[in-house]
Every structure is written in C-alpha cells, then in structure tokens.
Amino acid sequence: MRVRATCIILILLISIVPSSNAGAPEDLEEVGFVFGGVHIEAWHSGNSTSNLSDLPAIVEDYTATWCTNCVKVEHALDDVEETNNMQQYHFHRFIGENEDPLGS
C-alpha cells in the first residue's frame, strides 16, 4: 500500500513540473543592418517611398514584469524619442513565460 501511495505522489509531483519545448536558436548570418524602419497599420495596403535618411532609427525595448529598472528605461527612451527620429518597439514579458527574448 505504501509503495502504491508513494508512486502516486511521485507521479503527481512530476506532473506539475513545468516543461518547455523550445527549438534550437536560429543562426543569423549575413542579415544586414537596420538603418531605419517604416511601420504601417496591418489593415492598410499600398506602397510607400522614403529616403533612408528620413526613416526613423529602430529601438527594441525588452522589458519584463519582474524588472525593476525597466520602467526608468522606458521613460528615458520616451525622453530621447522627443528629440530624435526613432521608432520604439516594446516587448513585455511576464515571469511565467518559457521563452526568454534575450536568449539567456
């Protein structure tokens, strides 16, 4: 009886352990540089022509709910955006996610 109860408890404990099925990181070679970007709404169609010097700089901001200084960084980026031509893309993560956007 004890062996059966021990096995059941062991199975229950193992079943609540989170698992992640993530593939290997993609090897990026010769992808070029991002000089500037154009963003449009998904429901718009058409074409657009711009000079490279007119395009905004791209800023990717990876934040997380457990990050204490991320809010300060976001405010600093907002201040920089007021005086510079840049486009921010924010990636907000939460602590329960399996994937790490920074690859660590």
Can you walk me through this structure?
The mean pLDDT is 74. It is elongated, with a radius of gyration of 22 Å. The chain has 104 residues and is α+β, with helices and mostly antiparallel strands. The protein has a domain at 51-104. The chain has helices at residues 2-15, 70-83, and strands at residues 57-64, 86-93. Strands 1-2 form a two-stranded parallel sheet. It is built from 2 helices and 2 strands; from the N terminus they run H-E-H-E.
Fold blueprint:
Blueprint: H1 2-15, E1 57-64, H2 70-83, E2 86-93
Parallel strand pairs: 1-2
Provide keyphrases for this structure:
104 residues, alpha+beta, two-stranded parallel sheet, 27% helix
Q: Strand order within the widest sheet?
A: 1-2
Distance between the termini: 45 Å
Stretches where pLDDT is under 50 for at least 5 consecutive residues are: none
User: So how many helices?
Assistant: 2
- Provide the structure class: alpha+beta
Q: What Rg is obtained from the alpha carbons, in whole angstroms?
A: 22 Å
Q: Quick summary of this structure?
A:
It contains two helices and two strands. The chain has helices at residues 2-15, 70-83; strands at 57-64, 86-93.
